[in-house]
Design goal:
Elements (H helix, E strand, L loop, with lengths): L1 H14 L4 H14 L3 H8 L4 H12 L13 H4 L4 H7 L1 E7 L2 E6 L5 H11 L2 E6 L2 H12 L4 H9 L8 E3 L16 H16 L4 E6 L3 E8 L2 E9 L3 H11 L11 E9 L2 E12 L2 E9 L15 H10 L5 E6 L6 H12 L6 E5 L10 E4 L8 H9 L5 E4 L5 H12 L3 E6 L6 H8 L4 H7 E13 L4 E5 L2 H11 L7 E5 L10 E12 L2 H8 L4 H10 L5 H10 L5 H7 L4
Parallel strand pairs: 2-3, 11-15, 11-16, 12-13, 12-14, 14-15
Antiparallel strand pairs: 1-2, 4-8, 5-6, 5-10, 6-7, 8-9, 9-10, 16-19, 17-18
Helix pairs in contact: 2-3, 9-10, 10-11, 14-15, 15-17, 17-19, 21-22
Length: 569
């Protein structure tokens, strides 16, 4: 069972003389992140995947296999259903006589072996494989993401829905297009969602083209083409998504917004859905919102110690304003939600006003902006302040009226959290001034501003050393030498786990700017943001470029990512 395997893994680490403090940190991550212990150990860098496989094989006296190098046969795979494969992390490799050879991530799981025996009627021989290899093989076997597989699904009249849609109320079938409820269409939509979540996609783009329907997934901030679907199925697929999202399927000329919830691998995932009429039909974009990722708090968002300490200091203040700035998709909302989750206690009345409400959090009052009925950010904020809040989160400060009310709330005893669109942290001050806010109000209310970006992490499974090219060293050598003298760094060569991109996951890069007494005087004198930033850097502020470069030097990301997300100071 998992606990038995985990104990073996921990004992193996101790035999390798891994420090107890490091093991404790990994175990804490295991409790909060919901990933397997093996994966977290490999990601931490204390041991490689090959070493882990070899050591566990010796400890368990079970032969290991590199599943990525093994040819999987469809006939053999059919012995194990997708449900059992995903539940027990198991893949069928070969059948010889009455014995089925299976690759398992946890060969100590006797219940899994018994279930496979009961279902197949065969005896089971287990070999050891890493969980990430098994997950990838399962996706490859069962996802059916090729054009041939799509054709097979569309022509299949007996298939059912692979995912359970969590409905607040039953769908009225009388309002549904008959075609969109046919089993092949239901299964195809389910497959698109399943594959997206398996690939860790944050967004799904379903885009009508002239001759086909294109599906793309946004993974780690970059769009990847997933599949093309025959044009004849376009209307049925889009109708199915509209039904799930409680939209009007007869309306094809106006934009619509909706949401739905599905259950995926014992997690409930919200999808925020936007439909936009375009030349060849209705384009649908689905944003996946996994609220379980918010419970981890600030410590696991990837910040360096100094900006993280600044953030923790700022949120201890009983009142005032904290602003997180950055472009769309830079993780501002996730940071604010993580802060709220961290400071959410029974003694605090926390109210948010958002457009729209992205994550639904327990114990927090959340209000969605609705311009059609006059519920704007500013009007909503006025009403919120009559509810005696301790902490207020405003999704975005878009105009002077909202900014004015938010700042006055910060002055009268509330901790106000919000976002702005600026390029760096000091620019938030001049942005507020441009909105008509008096400098004395800004200096009195603002605690801290922070600028945030998301950078992709090097894939831990294909991470390798490389020497920077001479052309790069000539161009950026002086800047890199501020942080290190070495010329050998890390990148990902590309592997199955990261879809050959060299990156797996993202982390926050943060620039924090505390409003000190000296800064308050500069605000009162209406100094430009450039002058304020220059003063802050001289007095120790770490810029976005500083933070990103330090992550590059530590081997967490690549130089290409640093140059992509930051500008030269």
């Amino acid at each position: 069972m998992e606990t038995a395997l985990n104990q073996i893994i921990i004992n193996t680490l101790r035999k390798k003389n891994i420090p107890d403090k490091k093991i404790e940190d990994i175990l804490n991550d295991y409790k909060t992140k919901g990933e397997s212990l093996c994966s977290l150990i490999i990601q931490s860098g204390v041991i490689t995947e090959k070493e882990m496989l070899s050591l566990l094989s010796i400890e368990l006296s079970i032969p290991p296999i590199e599943l990525s190098k093994y040819k999987l046969e469809a006939e053999t795979n059919a012995y194990i259903s997708e449900k059992i494969a995903r539940q027990y992390k198991v893949v069928a490799l070969a059948k010889l006589g009455s014995t089925l050879t299976v690759a398992m991530s946890d060969p100590t799981n006797i219940i899994a072996e018994d279930d496979i025996k009961a279902v197949t009627g065969l005896s089971v021989y287990s070999v050891l494989a890493m969980e990430n290899d098994i997950n990838h093989a399962i996706s490859k076997i069962y996802s059916q993401n090729s054009q041939e597989d799509i054709s097979s699904i569309i022509s299949d009249d007996e298939s059912g829905e692979a995912m359970e849609v969590v409905e607040e109320e039953d769908i009225d079938i009388s309002e549904v297009s008959q075609e969109s409820n046919k089993a092949p269409i239901v299964k195809l939509v389910s497959m698109i969602l399943n594959e997206a979540l398996s690939r860790r996609a944050s967004d799904i783009h379903i885009e009508p083209q002239e001759k086909f329907l294109r599906v793309r997934y946004r993974v780690d901030g970059r769009l990847q083409e997933a599949l093309n679907i025959p044009k004849k199925n376009q209307n049925a697929i889009i109708a199915r998504l509209k039904i799930m999202s409680k939209m009007d399927i007869t309306e094809n000329r106006a934009p619509q917004d909706g949401r739905f919830k599905i259950r995926f691998r014992d997690r409930e995932i919200d999808f925020r859905v936007s439909v936009l009429p375009i030349t060849f039909g209705n384009k649908v974009v689905l944003r996946a919102l996994d609220s379980s990722s918010l419970s981890v708090g600030l410590d696991t968002l990837g910040y360096l110690p100094e900006p993280l300490a600044d953030f923790k200091e700022a949120i201890k203040r009983p009142y005032g304003m904290i602003l997180v700035t950055g472009p769309t998709g830079s993780g501002k909302s996730t940071t604010l939600y993580s802060i709220i989750n961290q400071i959410n206690t029974i003694e605090k009345n926390i109210i948010t006003i958002e457009d729209p409400v992205e994550y639904q959090l327990d114990g927090i009052t959340q209000i969605a902006v609705n311009a059609e009925i006059g519920l704007t950010f500013s009007e909503g904020l006025k009403s919120v302040l009559r509810q005696s809040p301790d902490i207020v989160m405003v999704g975005e400060i878009r105009d002077g009226e909202t900014a004015d009310i938010a700042i006055k709330a910060a002055l009268t005893g509330q901790l106000v959290l919000s976002t702005l669109h600026t390029n760096d942290a000091p620019s938030a001050i001049t942005r507020l001034m441009d909105m008509g806010i008096e400098p004395f109000l800004i200096s009195s209310s603002l605690i801290m501003t922070a600028a945030q970006r998301l950078c992709r992490k090097i894939c831990p499974f294909c991470k390798e050393e490389y020497d920077l090219p001479e052309t790069i060293l000539k161009q950026l050598g002086d800047e890199i030498s501020k942080y290190t003298d070495k010329k050998t760094f890390y990148h990902g060569r590309g592997c199955d786990k990261c879809n050959n991109t060299g990156y797996l996951g993202r982390m926050g890069t943060l620039e924090t700017f505390f409003i000190t007494n000296e800064i308050k005087e500069m605000i009162m004198k209406k100094y430009s943001s450039d002058k304020i930033k220059e003063y802050a850097i001289k007095n120790g502020m770490l810029t976005l470029r500083n933070n990103a470069m330090r992550k590059f030097v530590k081997g967490l990301t690549t130089l290409e990512e640093v140059l992509r997300i930051t500008a030269e100071d």
